[in-house]
Amino acid sequence: MSKAIADVKPGSPVAALPVRLAANTASTEPGLARNPGMKLDLGFLESLRNVNRSALERRAATLAKRRSIKADNQAAWLLRALSCMDLTTLNSNDTDERVRRLCAKALNPLRKDIAAGLGLGETVIRPAAVCVYHPFVATAVEALHGSRVHVAAVSTSFPHGLAPLETRIREIELSVAAGADEIDVVIPRGLVFEARWPQLYDEIVAFRAACGEAHLKVILGTGDLATLRNVMLAAMVAMMGGADFVKTSTGKESVNATLPVGLAMVRAIRAYFEQTGQMIGFKPAGGISTAKSALDWLILMKEELGRPWLEPELFRFGASSLLTDIERQLEHHVSGGRYSANHRHAMA
Amino acid sequence: MNILERYAAMDYDAAPEARNEADAWVAGRDFSTSLFIGGAWRAAASGATFATHEPATGKLLASVSDASTADIDAAVSAAAKALPKWRARSGYERAKVLYAIGRAMQRHQRLFAVLESIDNGKPIRESRDIDVPLAIRHFIHHAGWAQALTREFPDRKPVGVVGQIIPWNFPLLMLAWKIAPALAAGCTLVLKPAEYTPLTAILFAEVCQRAGVPKGVVNIVPGGPAAGEAIVNHPGVQKIAFTGSSEVGKIIRKATAGTGKKLSLELGGKSAFLVFEDADLDSAVEGLVDGIWFNQGQVCCAGSRLLAQESVAEAFFAKVKTRMSRLRVGNPLDKNTDIGPLVNRVQLERVRGMVAEGASQGAECWQPDCALPASGHFYPPTLATSVAPANILAQEEVFGPVLAAMSFRSTEEAIELANNTRYGLAASVWSENVNLALHVAPQLKAGVVWINGTNMLDAACGFGGFRESGFGREGGREGMLEYLVEDLPLGATIKPTSRPKIAGDGDTESPAIDRTAKLFIGGKQVRPDGNYSLAVADAKARLAGEVGLGNRKDIRDAVAAARKGTAWSEATGYNRSQVLYYLAENLAARADEFTRRLARLTGSNAKAAAEEVELSIERLFYFAGMADKYEGRVHAPPSRTVTLALNEPVGVLGIVCGDDAPLLGLISLCAPALAMGNRVVLVPSERHPLLATDLYQVIETSDLPAGAINIVTGKSAELAAVLARHDDVDGLWCVADADSCKQAEAESAGNLKRVWTSGGRKVDWRSDLVAGDTFLRRAVEIKNVWVPYGD
Fold it and tell me: Which UniProt keywords apply (chain B) (predicted)?
């Protein structure tokens, strides 16, 4: 049974965690051990087939209604959301200048008066990473130099993952060479429908090898996977193959990250943890644009996995417009209840 | 804590729901005049009040008028006075009133929710998201029934003035379950809220005043047990609807015996929560949270007995413990609270005592290390493992956040363990295998079965128990029937049977070979245990023959044979149909013999006797045809779920026949009972038992499996009493004199068997009214099986 999960009691002080180096802290503790993966275990995989959609939807629907984050706590939790953000631009018309703007925003996410109003003092809270296409990796690395904000590159023929394996592996290598220290790969969804688990596993092992020191996030494209059972199984194969994170969506599928899908994935993470002792990260992405929904996701993580999973080493939002809404809410908080407007906050 | 510290901690903080509106309502109200009678507020005649406290703090909330017998008299009078006009209103007019109540409640939804949480202690999330919306749903749903009444229930009329007594665990929701169908049916009512939780009922009465409910139609009388007793015993009340403990339910059953009052009881439970190895275990854990840790476990249908398959039991219990450690116990008005306080000190002490007792009987009780508030009646969530079936925690209803866990090896054992209880309210079945789930659900003795879910409730789906969890259903069509009565063709008063003194000797004219009429038990002709016989007189008081004098041991044996005769209940409707057709066929072949017997025994002329035999065959034929037609329904509650309302046989059914139309009466009762798959223990007419002993020869040639019908001849009143007192008899129908009927009803309280009596009156068996669904409906228990779907 899970030690870490069981040890965290409601209201207990935060356990000291072996965390990977945070983007936004000056911690010098040794990082969280990376997922070494495990042998593809089809028997174990089979035991995870029992995913009841109705029950997961009911749980997801009541999760956020069982918890309420208000006032100072809300401000703190929104800062947490900010710190777990992969600030993202993945548009076909992206340019170097656009990416530089995004990086500038990542470096200075909050207006000074808001940071002061929140009492942050010297502490700088920034997004965990900036997430871009390969051509903009070098630009981002340069713009973020010295900041501890990671650079993530989407890869492996994002968003469909249908280029030859050789090409996809080469893409990872090139992005790592360009300075990306996080690689967000996509899986070919067809492998899930065909239940070609060994092939999927082998590809992920290959991606992981190509990543080297860079952390591997595996995007399942859950909007394409049709069932929560497929989501559960695909997530587990990704973790067996060595994923450091599993991630919901590319943002390009017709259905983005939903709480029921998230629930299936965090339960896969819990099952993997119970089986191996390895803590795997989770990244919902696509369609998360409001502070309220960010809180819902944080509640999901805390309720299902516990406090350790509320660190950027284990939780990320893939988001582009979320930051502005968080800023608005924080301004509302520090201004004593005045509602803010988007244009009062610097755009990315 | 400053924001950075909170940022590091990532804890939840108190998120209190504002209570100022509710406090203002309480402060602004004079609770010394809180009896709502005849549309006006008044003080108790005695001037007495009782105190209601806030469970979270123990503080006094209000001193509320305490209704006494005089006040109940006044309330019943007001209801009786309002009845004719209310009953005479069109369905549309009544529908508008129900709709107005629902919408008015919706406009004050938050006030109801906050007030409920303050008075009862339930977490605000539950009152806000579950209790109050569902209460509103009941009124709006029943508006439709009010309007459709005459079309949907053409042969029925409102029962009249209704007395309703509700518990403290869901004060407003139980009020809605009671009041909405009563108003829809055209009844007027007197409702007594529970002493611990009267406030939302008082607020509801205010809503009624504004929503156009005519004066006297709804009367709300807060009070204690004495007020409840006064309602139950009031001669002006035609029906009692009670939700509460099995103990009080049994007292009410006894008290109403022989009064002709209609009765529905929704009582306690010890509901099983079955987790099979192919279940979604993580979801099943959440099911438990909604099952046993909903409303602090103070839920009659709480899934309080966890049965997990051995192959996954350890892993599952570990998951449950992990989840339990995340439950937050605290202030019910905090939006982050999962478990509030128990309703009062008495309840807290009771739960503590039972857990201690369970532990001393060998259960291992585990509680998470969770902080409890310093004041208030809080009890932590508790998991008891190593619970033997005999342990108090497996047997008795705790009505607290205490889960008793056991494991099972096979599906068969799971069902056996699940049914090893006096109760039969609800059950949950967790499996991803639809074959398994739909195999198990019909075998569970429970009125509600949730597949891969728990505590799902809706106004369109009937709710209610088997066994000692009570009888009657609330919600949906079957719930409406509890407030309606049919026109049964009842006739003259039945006098206690007096067997005439035998005047002459036996038949010496045409000496035939002597025939010994025996009892018929377990498919065999058997001699009576006592080896005594009873002389049977014909219409002219001559000796017509002798039958066995059955005694209580014969009834015992007959019940045991019926209990064993499961083959009949498990047979398909088509199969039962063919057997009953065959029975009719064989009876027809011997129609002349039965006609002669009937004429001689009853003295009716040959034509009348032939008519009775012919009608009996026709009726048997009819019910044979209904065996595969009187089916359940499918409900569509407002979620992605089908709810299957299954008609299941009541089980072992005792049938005591009157002397009037001895063959037709017997067939009219036995045929629907058998058609629906019940196993019958028949006590035929005491005066004319030879018709029944002739009949077993017909039965023997008709492929009825052993135990399907068992015949015990003898003294009806005596045998009826034995049946009524037998706790393995599930139902009892009794056509007899008033005293016997009253006794049958009173003695049935032992196991709360379903009883129908003719109330001491004869039944006109020739009437077509008894050939409809009158007895078919009583021959079944409706089980609602909830099947959420989607993949």
Answer: Oxidation, Oxidoreductase
